[in-house]
Amino acid sequence: MSDAPAMRPAPRTPALAGRVKAALVLFVLFALMPPLASALNDPFYVLIGTRILAYAIAAMALDLILGFGALVSFGHAAYLGFGAYAVAILSSYGIDDLFLQIAAGIVMSAGFALITGAISLRTQGVYFIMITLAFGQMAFFFFISLSAYGGDDGYSLSQRSGVLGTDLLGSDYGLYYTTLALLIAVFVLCNRIVNSRFGRVFTGIRENRTRMEAVGYAPFRFQLTAFVISACLTSVAGVLLANQAQFVSPAFMSWHRSGELIVMVVLGGVGTLTGGIVGAVVALLLEEWLGMLTHHWPLLFGTFLVLMVLFSPRGITGLIERLGIGRGRR
């Protein structure tokens, strides 16, 4: 890669600047959620908000490879499970520090992603989708077989993780703001990656792999690196979800969960980063609200998703951008 030609920094386009501003608006709204829940005397909003923030991290991590590298991983929920089980396993040995658990989840995810990614990336298209699904299911059934941690029944956590010796996560509000801080950190990291030389090469491979090879880049190395980074970031969401539920089970890493992450990215807008956040918000809120109306809520949710794909292929963020441009032209 050192012999490849240098690439000049990409200009900061209006669309990119707009997405960063949109992310800032979202973060401010998220920060206002707990005071609103207190005013309404309804702690449920804090609990569902924490879940949304954690899934937003996972969806953004998936968008890093799906939106900018066209790598449709159908086994990405496995890394949610690695993060969740890192909490369970370390807690059983008396290690309850959040950052140590995140580090353990990252190490487990990086190792699995490095091995499976090296194999999966030798394929393309539907074959890549199916082989990532197969590896994800292998991890799923492996954790089902771990009877020491409940197997298929799952494993209850006696308490939430500590943060540098404090009980910060013992409060729902503390967990919420910690999750929000990690979401912001992940967004900043992903944004830096996408706009770096590495990110531009990675996107260039998506656009024209042959041309990138011709100018001296090795696509496999860039794709594998991005795949591992995405897996590691997804595991952070798993650590947070385990703390939010205080329960861990193989359901964290089922193929259904991988499908939900893809739906969140598509619904919010592929290749935008903020789309993963918006998609997590809309998908989980619709799941809650439609579930109150009928047991057949997946039918209504599926109808909504089909309509979104038909009338706004770029997702909700694309629709908002298009409406904003339209108002500007008036």
What features would you describe in this structure?
The protein is mostly helical and 330 residues long. Helices cover 73% and strands 1% of the residues. Strands 1-2 form a two-stranded antiparallel sheet. It is globular. Residues 1-14 and 326-330 have low confidence and may be disordered.
Biggest sheet, spatial arrangement of strands: 1-2
Name of the CATH architecture: Orthogonal Bundle
Poorly predicted regions: 1-14, 326-330
Order of helices and strands: HHHHHEHHHHEHHHH
Question: How many β strands by DSSP?
Answer: 2
Give the radius of gyration: 20 Å
Number of domains: 1
Structural class: mainly alpha
CATH topology: ABC transporter involved in vitamin B12 uptake, BtuC
Describe the largest sheet: 2 strands, antiparallel
N/C terminus separation: 48 Å
The coarse silhouette is globular
Proportion of residues in extended strands: under 5%
Mean of the pLDDT scores?
A: 90
Q: What is the helical fraction, as a range of percent?
A: over 70%
Which class in CATH terms? Mainly Alpha
- Helix run count: 13
